[in-house]
Amino acid sequence: MNIAKIVDSSSQQRVVLVEGDQLIPLQMTERIASLSDILAADRPIAAAESLARKTPIAIDPQTQWLPPIDQQEVWAAGVTYRRSQTARMEESEAAASCYDRVYQADRPELFFKATPSRVSGHQQPLRIRADAKWNVPEPEITLALSPKLRIVGLTIGNDMSSRDIEGENPLYLPQAKCYDQCAGLGPWIKLYDQLPPADQITVDLTIRRDERVVFNQSTSAAEMARDFEDLVGWLGRDNTFANGAFLMTGTGIVPTNEFTLHPGDVVDIRIADIGTLSNTILQKK
Question: Does an H or E element contain 175, and which?
């Protein structure tokens, strides 16, 4: 089941089911009044199915997608794939040993990524920092977590990163990662009663510039050095999430060191059996 948020023709935000080429608005109730209420339910799919359905809306180019988030925090994991470990070590000789040790350690790298206001949805712009010269997207399988930190669904995440800022000093990580329009989520959450096997969750990144593909690469969750439940377990240590959370699980796709995003680039991230998150890149002068 795919569940999303949109702005309808009357400028109202709606929670909708995505079925084929149609959006089906759900009639919210006092008990289930938001998308996060559905995610917090003991059985989110059953909670969504319990809601009355309104007249379907056709998906078209004018559909206004919102990120599928309410008040949840967005967190992220790093150095969870061998390729990401290598790339992070390439950013800075001073930080290389830190990243190598994290890859092999029991404790993962986890960091706060974004508040909801910093998150963009499908077909909304993402930003590269004005004070950075080496910027890349990071396509990530993203876990939708209930307040009890149960994995209730998956969505697509883009953990935008300023590699030159982080490479200058690892202590600059928050500035390299967290800023306005720094995170993409969407286009919807695929709710699961049981997640598919890791090797079936494949990720493909395509970057287009002036209608020309300038980067394309694929990976899968089978290449991860850590599993989802382990990452969630560490996130929940001495930490509570009253509204639930989203956890980006790291990237195994890193463009070459010569590559940087340009304003106007279009970043498409496709995860098998979920969909495609597409965002255009902008940069303030």
Answer: helix 173-177
